[in-house]
Amino acid sequence: MAIEKIRREDRVLDIADFLDESFGVTITASTESGALGTAEEIATRAGIPNPQLSPPRSFPLTEKSMKALDWQILKALRYDALRSTREITRDLGVSYRMTHYSINKLFESNALSTRAIINAKDPKSSSIPSIFC
Questions:
Q1: Which of 2, 40, 61, 118 has the fewest CB within 10 Å, making it most exposed?
Q2: How far are the Cα atoms of 22, 78, 88, 112, 121 from residue 42, in angstroms, in the given order?
Q3: 19 exposed, middle or buried (CB, 10 Å; 0-12, 13-18, 19+)?
Q4: How is residue 60 annotated by DSSP?
């Protein structure tokens, strides 16, 4: 399935699986032309012959410069948004208070945000938070 192939791509931020046979993919790129090239590469590898590309989605600008600890926290949350602050603290070797403070600052500065993802086929199932940065 194309979604499974796309899920493994490094530059994919989000996949929205719709009820019919379509889905949406949010990718990361530094320019619009880079995004178009990336989208075409990913579509080719996933076996999608005619991808429909949408204009870039605008994200709020971050109000903070990222420090090394901020990047480590984002990396820790990238594939497991449900990780506890204690787990991140243990893995990074910093204090709980510093980790908690840094996560809050990332949210306040718009460098990090969450969004609930709901299974449309089973809306009663719990939604899973997804981390975007």
A1: 61
A2: 15, 20, 31, 25, 26
A3: exposed
A4: P
15 near 7, Cβ under 8 Å?
Answer: yes
Residue 106 in tokens: 């990332």
53 within 8 A of 39, measured Cβ to Cβ: yes
pLDDT digits (tens, 9 = 90+) for 56-107: 666 666 667 889 999 999 999 887 888 899 999 999 999 999 999 999 999 8
What residue ranges define each of the domains in the chain, with the CATH number in brackets?
2-46 (no CATH), 68-132 (1.10.10.10)
pLDDT of residue 87: 95
Per-residue pLDDT at 126: 47
Q: What is the largest CA-CA distance in the chain?
A: 49
Determine which helix (DSSP H) or strand (DSSP E) holds 5, and give its type and residue range: helix 2-7
Q: How many residues does the structure list for the chain?
A: 133
* pLDDT computed for residue 59 by the predictor: 62
Instruction: Provide the H-helix boundaries in 28-126.
Output: 32-46, 68-78, 85-92, 96-108
User: Count of CB atoms within 10 A of residue 107's CB?
Assistant: 12
